[in-house]
Design brief:
The protein has 45 helices and 5 strands. It is mainly alpha-helical and 827 residues long. A 5-stranded parallel β-sheet has the order 2-1-3-4-5, with helices on both faces. Helix 3 links the parallel strand 3 and strand 4.
């Protein structure tokens, strides 16, 4: 590491109307120095009138003496031309004198380098520019006509910083290249080291070369392998070619494409990079590539963050304000992943970053990534900037902006968050956010809940109506309003409240509200007929639940009478009665299940023949629906058996499912998980793999869990001592990934390395993903480091695995665990 630093002096000239911009230039240069000066020995020093101490003499002459020592003149202009430096001088402003002095020095000595940056002016001001702005416009026109000094325009703070960085980097890299070339030539001519140093000595320095000492050494070795009279191509590794591409990309000029290293090359370098030594510039090139591909989670990043001390240096934060949209959004996604808070250590306030992220010229992918970041880490002062994004009404950003506002508000006050939810009216809200918003429902006022019954989001309406019903806070007026809702479940809730309040509905009236019957059917008198006609599933479920509610409210005597008069078309009263008095009806239910409802159905049809003598065709038409009706009746009976959870029924449930007549559902899986044996894991897999598995339901009476998650829990409950064997089975991908997520940490920790390696090499991306997450959460850093080494060393490997294992190895353990736990919770 260099112990002596050379200095590049840059003079910053401007009138007084760009004070904020001068601060941005200063911050950008401090940033460059904090990242690179110590490693390379080159320091950039910014000189301006603020740095000139007072002494005897004309003030501008004192400034000019400092200007004469500078290697670079950077000029900023906006609306003002400035004031004359003295009363009788030839210059109309201090800036003009500084610029003209620099031009004369450049003509005489080929230095300083000169860059001019003009801040965009509001077109309204150009209509009547005034004297000051007219001089700026004239100066700009003179530059255009002279065609000697190039200048650039910038639109905002982020644009200025990007252009300043580019100007300075281009200049100092040219100095580094020239110095490197002089050293190479001197070595070739065997010049003494003192002569080499003398030939390159000037009162200037450089900031780091893209070709670091480590990079140059690698290139020499690489060239040596390829430039002999008998080169040996097979001795060149793919990772070495990738590193060569990385280095060549670092020295590209503005004429080159702005491209990052490809995913394959980045991973190749990582496979060797744990033993190679890299220069800091190479590390930043790899960082850049990691951000470019971060959204796809298939390129390593965190190793390079750690190698550059990136968390302490706020590297993620820096990358959010410059570069391609992919790199900026990647840096924001990385910040979100580890909940990295914005720091003011860089000398840039929070508004600077918000302005940069939400600039109108910015790509939507950056805005969305920024909004997702603020949703996790934003504070109240960010809300105005986010609301401005909402005001743009862009379909690509408004959802993320709304989510960010609600989540930030929720961190401050639940009431504020719900007010934002009602005000912004998002059509979609995630299940986890909805749960958080209404988690402490008892503390919410009646009015807060009532205000949500007209929300355009279906999930919000369902939630608030459910809570109002549970707390008996719904008024008759609101309930009447709910009866016209577009959602059957909301209509059901409204109807249920009115019933509980004493309102009476006929069965036909209730059905017309929840699940209207198709007109023109001669069998409208049978309550469940539209389920046979393929009615809306949610409406049909709600109608069935409504009828169970009605019959459950009746006493046993009345319910028995109703059950005796029902037919095979609808035996809801019987099933309600049987579940209430299970001991009395258990034998009949079990026999009916064992018989797939054959005997019960035949008796039911005969009963109908005796009742409907006016229309003798009805029994025949019912017989044509025999399979559907028996399946439904068998399902209802089996639901009761499973819910009663008697171990003695395991053989019966298993046999019914194996016969395949009844359509399986979540109650079966839950029952098998509680009482099943090893053989039943295969039965669970077979059930959830059937096309007719009854997985869709919207009722609160059914377990609120996906079939894959339920199946995974059941399989673990049965085989918790043989987890590795379960994982080797042919399981549906979503079941296996759910099982990995659901495994207790202790169980995952007991898996042998070969079992984990097999999962990490699975052909399924999801399985590899969740396995890598669990490894990061459960294994120590030393174990993870060994796992990565062995995984790469075995040959073929998957990039998404490397991405996450690298994360676990390189990020502080507490932050890594918290991060992957959040991801696992979403899974």
């Amino acid at each position: 590491m260099p112990t002596i630093r050379k200095v590049v002096k840059i003079f910053l000239g401007s009138p007084g109307d760009v004070m904020l911009e001068r601060g941005i230039v200063k911050a950008a240069i401090d940033d460059i120095n904090s990242l690179l000066a110590e490693q390379t020995g080159y320091q950039v020093e910014l000189i301006g009138w603020e740095n000139v101490s007072s002494s005897h003499g004309r003030p501008q002459e004192i400034i000019n003496r400092e200007l004469d020592q500078c290697d670079y003149f950077l000029g900023l202009m906006w609306k003002r031309w400035g004031t004359p430096p003295d009363l009788n001088g030839t210059y109309s402003s201090g800036f003009q004198e500084e610029y003209e002095t620099s031009i004369k020095r450049r003509e005489a000595h080929s230095r300083p380098e000169i860059s001019l940056l003009f801040k965009s002016v509001d077109p309204e001001l150009l209509r009547d520019p005034g004297d000051e702005l007219k001089k700026v416009i004239a100066f700009r026109q003179k530059l255009i006509e002279g065609k000697q000094i190039l200048f650039e325009d910038f639109s905002d703070s982020a644009d200025l910083e990007k252009r300043v960085r580019r100007c300075i980097h281009k200049y100092v890299f040219s100095l580094v290249n020239a110095e490197t070339e002089n050293i190479e030539n001197s070595q070739a001519n065997e010049a003494p080291a003192s002569e080499v140093q003398e030939s390159t000595t000037r009162n200037i320095g450089t900031i780091p070369s893209p070709l670091s000492t480590e990079g140059i050494q690698f290139l020499r070795e690489f060239i040596s392998k390829t430039s002999g009279t008998s080169p040996v191509p097979e001795s060149i590794k793919a990772a070495e070619i990738a590193r060569f591409r990385l280095l060549s990309g670092l020295v590209g000029s503005q004429a080159n494409d702005d491209r990052s290293l490809g995913i394959h090359d980045t991973n190749l370098i990582y496979s060797q990079g744990r033993t190679w030594n890299f220069g800091l510039s190479e590390m930043f090139g790899l960082l850049s590539s990691g951000f470019e591909h971060y959204a796809n989670q298939n390129a390593p990043l965190w190793h390079w963050v750690k190698g550059t001390d990136g968390l302490k240096r706020h590297v993620l934060q820096r990358f959010t304000t410059f570069g391609t949209p992919e790199k900026r959004s990647g840096a924001l996604l990385a910040m979100t992943r580890i909940h990295e808070r914005l720091s003011d250590d860089l000398g840039l306030n929070r508004d600077y970053f918000l302005d940069s992220w939400f600039s109108k010229s910015n790509a939507n992918m950056v805005k969305v990534a920024a909004l997702d970041y603020l949703a996790e880490c934003g504070i109240s002062s960010d809300l105005n900037a986010i609301r401005a994004v909402v005001g743009e009404r862009d379909n690509q950003t408004i959802g993320a902006a709304t989510n960010a506002i609600i989540r930030i508000s929720l961190r401050n006050s639940r009431d504020d968050a719900i007010v934002a939810l009602y005000e912004l009216q998002p059509s979609y809200i995630s299940a986890d956010l909805l749960t958080e918003l209404f988690a402490n429902a008892a503390a919410l006022s009646k009015q807060v809940l009532l205000d949500g019954v007209t929300h355009q989001s279906l999930s919000v309406r369902r939630k608030v109506v459910e809570l109002l019903l549970a707390r008996r806070m719904m008024s008759n007026q609101i309930s009447e309003q709910l009866l016209a809702d577009t959602d059957p479940l909301v209509r059901y809730y409204g109807l249920k409240f009115l019933l509980d309040s004493g309102r009476i509905f006929s069965e036909q009236e209730a059905q017309a509200i929840i699940c209207p019957i198709k007109s023109g059917n001669s069998l409208n008198s049978f309550p469940t007929w539209n389920s046979l006609l393929g009615a809306d599933r949610t409406a049909d479920d709600c109608w069935k639940q409504y009828r169970r509610d009605i019959f459950s409210a009746k006493n046993t005597h009345d319910l028995t009478e109703l059950a005796n008069h029902e037919t095979v078309l609808d035996q809801t009263p019987y099933f309600v009665l049987a579940e209430r008095n299970f001991k009395h009806y258990a034998g009949a239910l079990r026999n009916a299940i064992d018989d797939d409802y054959n005997g019960e159905f035949e008796m039911g049809v005969e009963k109908i023949r005796n009742r409907f003598t006016v229309d003798p065709n009805i029994p025949d038409r019912i017989l044509s629906l025999e399979a559907i009706l028996r399946q439904g009746l068998s399902r209802e009976a089996l639901n009761i058996i499973c819910r009663k959870r008697n171990a003695e029924d395991i053989g019966r449930v298993r046999a019914a499912l194996k016969r395949g007549f009844v359509i399986p559902n979540l109650w079966d899986i839950e029952y098998l998980g509680k009482f099943g044996e090893w053989q039943d894991i295969a039965l669970i897999v077979e059930c959830i793999s059937r096309p007719q598995f009854d997985r869709d339901t919207y009722l609160p009476s059914v377990p609120a869990i996906s079939m894959y998650q339920m199946a995974a829990q059941a399989a673990y409950s049965i085989g918790h001592t043989r987890v590795s064997e379960i994982l080797k089975m042919e399981l549906p991908t979503r079941m296996k990934s759910s099982l990995i997520v659901e495994l207790p940490d202790t169980a995952f920790r007991e898996l042998k390395d070969d079992s984990i390696d097999q999962l990490l090499r699975s052909d399924d991306d999801k399985i590899r993903f969740v396995t890598a997450l669990k490894c990061v959460k459960v294994k120590t850093k030393a174990q993870l480091d060994k796992l990565v080494t062995n995984y790469i060393g075995a040959g073929a490997y998957f990039y998404n695995v490397i991405h996450w294992l690298d994360f676990g190895v390189s990020v502080p353990k507490i932050r890594a665990i918290a991060s992957v736990q959040r991801v696992l919770n979403n899974e």
